[in-house]
Amino acid sequence: MNALLLGAPKGLPFGGGALSVEQPRWISWRLPTTAVPSSNKLQDLLSKVLSGYLAARDERFGGHHLATVLRQNLPDAVRLVCLEKIASELKAQGSLGQGKWVECPWLRIFHPKEMTSAQQGMYVVCLFAADMSAVFLTLNQGTNNLSSNDIENCRTAIQQKIEGLRGCEIGPLAAVALAANSKRGRSCELACAYYKRYGAGRLPAE
């Protein structure tokens, strides 16, 4: 099976531990498996973040060019892929922090009916390691108001519902995968159900 599935499977405790009563709505997200010679834009944009983020954290946050890359250019590139290959309903959003640099910037792909923020629901998210050594394509979950046990139980429920993704490793991410010191970074590692790691010098063409 080579698709990451977006939705809220019935009975998964998202957002404060409350059980979802909604019927699942599944949307296919296919992992990049083949190169597309006509466009390397997504690869180039990811490379810009990986190569420039550490230095940028020592610079002024407001108006930085990487903000445009993460908040506008990368989401636009992902939306183009979604329109061409998957479903136009999918949305993309990138973040490098609000008012200050976040430790691990991210780019999420989601269905707006399934979630209201990056802290709730289930979604595909590209997580950049804090040391910019890699970016992880993950099937992850929001962790707002969830205990570690809740996060683990929810991750297990996702893995039982979606039994294996071709080319992906089974989560969670190792505790050092994101090289994160923040609680948010460690929660992302724990919450990850499936992932694929791309080293900084080994990004896919698509």
Provide an overview of this structure.
With 206 residues, the protein is of the alpha+beta class. It has helices spanning 41-56, 65-85, 148-161, 183-191; strands at 3-6, 27-30, 91-95, 106-110, 122-128, 134-141, 169-170, 194-199. Strands 3-4-5-6-8-7 form a 6-stranded antiparallel β-sheet. Strands 1-2 form a two-stranded antiparallel ribbon. Helix 1 (41-56) packs antiparallel against helix 2 (65-85). The protein is globular and about 40 Å long.
Kindly name the structural category.
alpha+beta
Strand residue percentage: 15-25%
Head-to-tail CA distance between termini? 19 Å
Number of beta strands: 8
Radius of gyration: 16 Å
Topology:
Layout: E1 3-6, E2 27-30, H1 41-56, H2 65-85, E3 91-95, E4 106-110, E5 122-128, E6 134-141, H3 148-161, E7 169-170, H4 183-191, E8 194-199
Would you summarize the structure shown here?
This protein is an alpha+beta fold and about 210 residues long. Helices cover about 30% and strands about 20% of the residues.
Tags for this entry?
single chain; 206 residues; alpha+beta; 6-stranded antiparallel sheet; two-stranded antiparallel ribbon; 4 helices; 8 strands; disordered N terminus
